[in-house]
Amino acid sequence: MIYTVNGPINKAQLGLTLGHEHFKWEENETYANQMYFNKKYDDEDIKASHEMILPVLNELYQLSCRAIVETSPPIGGQNVKLLKQLSMASGVHIIPCTGHNVPKHIHEMFKDTFISQISKKWINDFQEGLDTIEGTVIRPGSKRLLSPLRYLRNTCTILSDCIQWEFGLPLN
Ligand SMILES: [Zn+2]
Q1: How far does the centroid of ligand 1 lie from the alpha carbon of residue 143, in Å?
Q2: CA 160, CA 154: separation in Å to the nearest integer?
Q3: What do you get for the CA distance between the two ends of the chain, in Å?
Q4: Is residue 172 part of a domain?
Q5: Ligand 1 centroid from CA 21, angstroms
Q6: Does residue 170 have a pLDDT over 70?
Q7: For the chain, which terminal residue's Cβ has fewer other Cβ atoms within 10 angstroms, N or C?
Q8: Cα–ligand 1 centroid distance for 65 (angstroms)
Q9: CATH of the domain at 127
Q10: Share of the chain above pLDDT 90, in %
Q11: Distance in Å, CA 76 to ligand 1 centroid
Q12: Cα(132)–Cα(130) distance, rounded to whole angstroms?
């Protein structure tokens, strides 16, 4: 089962897939966090982005692309409301992600419980969904971790393997 912004599909429905793309990297970190944690979106920004990105998706569809894996973690401003609209308008399946960026100082402050807390968040993102839009519970189809800490990346890869085994989520 593959989780897309329009709900789950079978692997066979994927077709030609771009495996690692960023639709729109969000430079405003406050807005990025607002979307991820508070499910609040700027509809004007969505409209402008939709108009800019849709022609690219339509062209990709013409070139036989049928699915795209979006790999922006929350700090990158993954916008599932925009992605859902783009997917419906273009016919291209879009697979959203969960995950996070983990700078060293954040990990240092919470290192005793860090792994258990981040895994809880990822599992919650999957169980509850990243958001529910127009009746569709949008679950992440992959996880993305940005961190300069090699041992943390290694630990999270092991953790991801466990979550993948439990829920079928690949680490991107
Ligand atoms: Zn990337």
Answers
A1: 12
A2: 10
A3: 16
A4: no
A5: 6
A6: no
A7: N
A8: 19
A9: 3.20.20.140
A10: 56
A11: 9
A12: 7
